[in-house]
């Protein structure tokens, strides 16, 4: 029998787990320092005891910024093989987490396949699965039904679950009285809101939170406290609904820590660029440094088809100011289910944002690859440049498709022999610089 229940429990007892040792090495951090952050709740290692093939990662503002990819089957996209193709593509491109948001069919086999084969962290939103699992309408489900699905996902090996625990019956009055432009845009949050509205009962994830904590402690499932009231447009950013829910999430974070359950806190959403840093600071204060997991944030509402870019802009600023985990956004956001190419574009944009933030934060070793790229560019070593690139395949394809007329390896087609790097190398070597 293990001497500890969760990674947090182990850290508090001074026990270095295999997962901690792997994460400490990845992060170039002293093991004792990592364990100190974990004992405080400022770093989590989501690693369900039943997810045996996981390659563990740490999530915390003092670590490398991590990327999550949302996938899953739905009524309009039922092909599990395509979703698995997206999963493996995402993992190969460096995504540290996969969230299975399946909302159609028999979801358990796909979920179990993920936790038996995928090395990335696996997350789910159990409230989505409740209607599908029981094949009953929302209003007929009981609080016990919802809790049983949380237990099922934990048994299946899921590393973190998004639970919308912070929305309560008081929120119903707030939404009605404050007249948001976009009301609730969280899918899970809207389902909980609808269930409360139809049944007259309190949010089961809030009312039976202690029972959920017992489940999470047993299987070492990290709770990702969902932000049901995240803003769905710039006009709703940082309003009373969002902030009051965040205060409640801070209280729930503390209660989870008392059970040695690891916690992440989810955040906005659509936020104007000038409000992002303040949002991060407020969260860090209210939630006592628990890792912040943000969707975007998207910094404008008018870029459908390009929301991977609006999210990358916001994500870079958010991570630079303390967000630990970025949920990717694809070009299909607000429009359609993402295809394989959309998934790739979303991951690349998020990785750029995460990497830029890590450099700004001074994460140890973050800029090493950029310095290698600069060295490769100085000597016009194209193969080395492709190796350093976030997406070397695309970079090489562009270069190969538009090579200079004379196919010189020491020039690019943009500048030809006017290339500044070529001219400087020749000048500094005392060589003749031919242009014409």
UniProtKB/TrEMBL annotation:
Q: Which GO cellular component term is one of those annotated?
A: cytosol
Q: InterPro entries from the xrefs?
A: ThiC, ThiC/Bza_core_dom, ThiC/BzaA/B
The record's keywords, sorted A to Z, are:
4Fe-4S, Iron, Iron-sulfur, Lyase, Metal-binding, S-adenosyl-L-methionine, Thiamine biosynthesis, Zinc
Pathway listed for it is:
Cofactor biosynthesis; thiamine diphosphate biosynthesis
Q: Provide the top EC class.
A: lyase
Kindly state what the record says about how the cofactor is bound: Binds 1 [4Fe-4S] cluster per subunit. The cluster is coordinated with 3 cysteines and an exchangeable S-adenosyl-L-methionine.
So what does this thing catalyse? 5-amino-1-(5-phospho-beta-D-ribosyl)imidazole + S-adenosyl-L-methionine = 4-amino-2-methyl-5-(phosphooxymethyl)pyrimidine + CO + 5'-deoxyadenosine + formate + L-methionine + 3 H(+)
Q: Output the Gene Ontology terms for molecular function.
A: 4 iron, 4 sulfur cluster binding; phosphomethylpyrimidine synthase activity; zinc ion binding
Please list the residues that bind Zn(2+).
270, 334
Q: Which residues form a coiled coil?
A: none
What cofactor(s) does the depicted protein rely on? [4Fe-4S] cluster
One Pfam family of this chain: ThiC_Rad_SAM
State its Enzyme Commission number(s): 4.1.99.17
Task: Report the function annotation for this chain.
Answer: Catalyzes the synthesis of the hydroxymethylpyrimidine phosphate (HMP-P) moiety of thiamine from aminoimidazole ribotide (AIR) in a radical S-adenosyl-L-methionine (SAM)-dependent reaction.
In the record, the note on similarity to other proteins reads: Belongs to the ThiC family.
Q: Which NCBIfam families match?
A: PRK13352.1 (NF009895), thiC (TIGR00190)
Name of this protein: Phosphomethylpyrimidine synthase
List the source organism: Eshraghiella crossota DSM 2876
- Its gene name is thiC
């Amino acid at each position: 029998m293990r001497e500890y229940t969760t990674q947090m429990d182990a850290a508090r007892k001074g026990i270095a787990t295999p997962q901690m040792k792997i994460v400490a090495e990845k992060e170039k951090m002293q093991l004792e320092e990592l364990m100190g952050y974990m004992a405080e709740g400022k770093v989590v290692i989501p690693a369900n005891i039943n997810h045996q093939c996981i390659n563990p990662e740490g999530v915390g503002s003092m670590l490398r910024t991590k990327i999550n990819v949302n996938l899953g089957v739905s009524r309009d996209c039922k092909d599990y093989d395509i979703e698995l193709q997206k999963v493996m593509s995402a993992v190969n491109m460096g995504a540290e987490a996969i969230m299975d948001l399946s909302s159609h069919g028999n979801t358990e086999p796909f979920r179990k396949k993920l936790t038996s084969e995928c090395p990335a962290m696996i997350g789910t939103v159990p409230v989505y699965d409740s209607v599908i699992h029981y094949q009953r309408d929302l209003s007929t489900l009981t609080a016990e039904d919802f809790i049983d699905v949380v237990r099922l996902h934990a048994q299946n090996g899921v590393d973190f679950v998004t639970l919308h625990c912070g929305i309560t019956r008081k929120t119903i009055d707030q939404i009605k009285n404050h007249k948001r432009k976009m009301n609730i845009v969280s899918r899970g949050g809207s389902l909980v809101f609808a269930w409360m509205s139809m049944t007259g009962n309190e949010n089961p994830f809030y009312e039976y939170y202690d029972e959920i904590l017992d489940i999470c402690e047993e299987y070492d499932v990290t709770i990702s406290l969902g932000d049901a009231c995240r803003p769905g447009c710039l006009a709703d950013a940082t309003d009373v609904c969002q902030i009051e829910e965040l205060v409640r999430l801070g209280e729930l974070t503390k209660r989870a820590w008392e059970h040695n359950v690891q916690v992440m806190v989810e955040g906005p959403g659509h936020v104007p660029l000038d409000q992002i840093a303040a949002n991060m600071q407020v969260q860090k204060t209210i939630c006592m440094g628990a890792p912040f997991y943000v969707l975007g944030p998207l910094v404008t509402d008018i870029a459908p088809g390009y929301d991977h870019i609006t999210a990358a802009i916001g994500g870079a600023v958010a991570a630079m100011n303390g967000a630990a985990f970025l949920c990717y956004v694809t070009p299909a956001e607000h429009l359609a289910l993402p295809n394989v190419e959309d998934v790739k574009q979303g991951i690349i944009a998020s990785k750029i944002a995460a990497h830029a933030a890590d450099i700004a934060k001074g994460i140890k070793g973050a800029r090493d690859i950029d310095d290698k790229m600069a060295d490769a560019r100085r000597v016009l070593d194209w193969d080395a440049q492709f190796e350093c690139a976030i997406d070397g395949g695309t970079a090489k394809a562009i270069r190969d498709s538009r090579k200079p007329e004379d196919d010189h390896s020491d020039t690019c087609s943009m500048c030809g022999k006017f290339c500044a790097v070529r001219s400087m190398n020749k000048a500094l070597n005392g060589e003749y610089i031919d242009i014409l």
